[in-house]
Design brief:
Layout lengths: L1 H9 L3 H15 L2 H22 L7 H27 L3 H11 L6 H4 L6 H9 L6 H12 L9 H21 L3 H10 L5 H17 L1 H4 L3 H11 L2 H15 L3 H21 L13 H8 L6 H4 L6 H15 L5 H8 L30 H7 L6 H13 L6 H17 L1 H4 L11 H18 L9 H4 L10 H4 L2 H13 L3 H13 L6 H17 L3 H15 L3 H13 L3 H14 L6 H12 L3 H14 L4 H13 L3 H12 L5 H14 L2 H14 L8 H4 L2 H6 L4 H12 L4
């Protein structure tokens, strides 16, 4: 019934919505809401009756919209009441608990007298629609310099910040214009952390309830005025970027799990295993873990090794604000009951928290960590719990020795002693916002609340479509920054839309910047499978920037995908003219395209040049060997395939070498090579596949169809 009412309201069918609401109120036994629904139905019936009689009423449209707004509020009230009564969510469980405890659900009392952090948060987060008196009480709570002499300045600030988080969660659960007004007021607070939390709350509330804002003209006007301020507009742009960075998490976790950590563990074996009683030197461990401080032979890895590139990619994500420590935090928080409480996710780091491990507070290393500008609040709490656990460090003789060394480093390290959280400069407004967004991302992905519904950061990933937020985001610098992040996290559909919006704002955009945006737009269309459109965009980019090696290479790939190998080769030739001679990749790719176009002579010219400029490259010699085979230069082919087989041959190398042996000598000489090709092929590759792709070539060299079938069966039967 409630869902029927919600659907009817979404379609502005007020009569149907009121009928469903009356029935829902009756079933829930909510007589107060039922009476309000009945009064609204009577008023709406009167409006309809007057309209049927032709009575002129200049205020009819305003009345109709006010009735819709009231009906939506009543629908929210019934939905919340039903959820609190029956749902198994963190929200419903928390509210039921508060109702069962005397005085714990009285919002005005809790915000008018000293009260615990958690009680205030929970009662506001799960509160019904605020009354005018409750709004005034909360307004005074946010603005009064001091309320209770028992509160310290740090504790007072923590209470306000938590209240802003509670208002945000409450608005995500149910729209309440009074709560929205409180957050709008908070956006003008002199406290940067409070302003940051309030603008994030306003943004998420607007995304969640965009269709409701227009029903409240005063709220719409205040929102427009707020977003006209430079600081708030910049904050919305930052929130958009941070929302897109939620998509980076899977890439970061995958890189850590599959590439970086296994390689670090493998390299760590070079340090050897310390024996019990050994003096463990932490500085030496750090030096050996740092490849820059090691002998290349010890580290045994090239500077551009894939896992090193993965680390650089994660560092770039971190610079943009992505939570690169989320995978580690996810593992740690499972051992910390502290994070089973929703309120604790919104609590700024304070030693006044009742669960704070006080004995770790004086550690110089903890103080140094607290001074880090981009350490988020959940990191700080988790770090203190970890530091506190060092007192129970165990693990045998070696573990005990390492534990003593670690504790010594934590408490006496000269570097850590030079920092003190109290002396750290305050974070800027945008830094506060970025840190808070990290905590929010963690909350929506890891906390018990995550089961209550999808994260708003995923539901409303692209904010440029929102009628209220779009004006703040429709700025070239904001659009291009968000588009680049979307591209970086491989969200090509979102990046495409953002680059398109950016290109619509052509005024003031430099031709080079316009060309770069076109290049990226073309790449997005290519990744989305829109190949014809991608080619068109790439060509537009070339008109602006002239010959560009990256664009030409992308165009060459598109030509190859539609089997225009000559066109692709010509484009690669243009790329080769733009690159340094030591980069032979364009020459080799052009040659490969000519080979696919059955033009081996053209291919050999480029391959000989590439082999001269950069000798003994397997890819170059592989193509040279095949071109020699196609041109029946068997001695050259034999020499090149022998060179390849002596190194790390591919299945194709063995297969082509076998073809050469068969057509120039005999099948018995080819069979071992065919078997080696099968061993290097994917599991389950049938022997017939060795002859399928090169069937025309083999038949043109005197073999018969029956020969190929017999050879396949011979290999299948494994006859020597």
């Amino acid at each position: 019934m409630i869902s029927d009412a919600q659907k009817a309201l979404a379609q502005s069918r007020l009569s149907s919505a009121l009928a469903s609401l009356a029935e829902a109120a009756n079933v829930l036994g909510d007589w107060e809401t039922g009476r309000a629904v009945s009064e609204l139905r009577n008023a709406y019936s009167a409006l309809l009756n007057y309209m049927s009689l032709g009575v002129a009423d200049p205020d009819r449209h305003n009345l109709y919209h006010s009735f819709l707004r009231t009906a939506a509020d009543l629908c929210d009230d019934l939905s919340r009441a039903d959820s609190v009564r029956h749902a198994d969510t963190a929200y419903a469980r928390t509210r039921r608990t508060l109702q069962a405890l005397p005085g714990r659900s009285d919002l005005m009392q809790l915000y008018s007298a000293p009260a615990p952090l958690r009680d205030r948060f929970d009662v506001l987060w799960t509160s019904p629609r605020l009354t005018a008196a409750e709004q005034d009480t909360l307004q005074n709570f946010f603005t009064a310099p001091t309320l209770f002499k028992e509160e310290t300045p740090a504790g007072r600030e923590a209470q306000r910040l938590m209240a802003a988080g509670a208002l945000t969660l409450a608005l995500l659960s149910m729209f309440d214009v009074r709560k929205l007004y409180l957050l709008l007021d908070g956006c003008s607070s002199p406290s940067a952390p409070l302003r940051a939390r309030c603008i994030v709350g306003v943004t998420l509330a607007v995304l969640q309830h965009s269709n409701r804002i227009a029903d409240y003209p005063d709220a719409a006007a205040r929102l427009a005025e707020l977003l006209s301020r430079e600081e708030c507009a910049a904050a919305v742009c930052e929130i958009q970027q941070q929302a897109l960075l939620t998509l980076a998490t899977p890439h970061i976790e995958k890189s850590l799990r599959e590439d970086i950590l296994p390689e670090v563990m493998r390299q760590a074996k070079n340090m050897g295993t310390p024996k019990a009683g050994d003096n463990i030197d932490i500085d030496e461990i750090a030096r050996q873990l740092d490849p820059e401080g090691q002998d290349a032979a010890v580290w045994n890895v090239e500077a551009d090794a894939p896992w090193r590139r993965k680390i650089q990619e994660i560092q770039k994500f971190a610079e943009q604000g992505a939570d690169v420590f989320l995978p580690t935090f996810k593992q740690l928080m499972q051992r910390m009951p502290f994070f089973n409480v929703v309120a604790n996710w919104f609590c700024p780091f304070t030693a006044e928290h009742p669960d704070f491990p006080a004995r770790s507070a004086n550690s110089s290393f903890v103080q140094a960590f607290m001074a880090q500008p981009m350490a988020c609040e959940t990191d700080k709490f988790a770090f203190c719990f970890i530091a506190d656990s060092f007192s129970s460090f165990t693990g045998g003789a070696t573990g005990a020795a390492l534990g003593e060394q670690l504790k010594k480093m934590l408490e006496e390290n000269d570097f850590a002693a030079r920092f003190n959280a109290a002396d750290a400069p305050p974070r800027s407004f945008l830094e506060e916002l970025r840190v808070y967004m990290k905590d929010l991302r963690r909350f929506f992905s890891l906390s018990p609340y995550r089961r209550d519904g999808a994260s708003p950061l995923h539901q409303h990933l692209l904010m440029t479509d929102n009628q209220w937020l779009a004006p703040a985001l429709q700025r070239p610098d904001a659009l291009i920054a968000a588009a680049d992040i979307a591209m970086h996290v491989q969200s090509f559909a979102n990046a495409y839309r953002l680059y398109s919006d950016y290109l619509c704002h052509t005024t003031g955009i430099e031709p080079q910047a316009h060309a770069e945006a076109l290049q990226k737009l073309g790449y997005c269309r290519e990744q989305l499978g829109e190949l014809v459109d991608a080619e068109e965009v790439y060509n537009k980019a070339l008109l602006l920037c002239g010959d560009n090696s990256w664009v030409l290479a992308r165009l060459a790939k598109l030509h190859s995908r539609r089997a225009d190998y000559v066109g692709a080769a010509e484009l690669y030739d243009r790329v080769a003219q733009l690159t340094e001679e030591t980069d032979t990749t364009p020459l080799v790719r052009a040659a490969e395209c000519y080979l696919l176009a059955a033009m081996p002579e053209e291919a050999r010219q480029r391959l000989f040049k590439a082999d001269y400029l950069k000798p003994e490259q397997p890819r170059t010699r592989r193509a040279l060997a095949w071109s020699s085979l196609l041109m029946e230069k068997y001695e050259d082919a034999e020499r090149l395939y022998s060179w390849l087989l002596e190194r790390q041959p591919t299945a194709a190398d063995c297969q082509n070498a076998a073809h050469l042996a068969w057509i120039t000598r005999s099948l018995p000489e080819a069979l071992p090579l065919y078997r080696r090709a099968l061993q290097l092929s994917e599991a389950g590759t049938p022997p017939a596949a060795l002859f399928r792709a090169d069937r025309s070539f083999l038949l043109s060299h005197g073999l018969k169809e029956e020969d190929l079938q017999l050879a396949a069966d011979l290999l299948e039967a494994n006859i020597p």
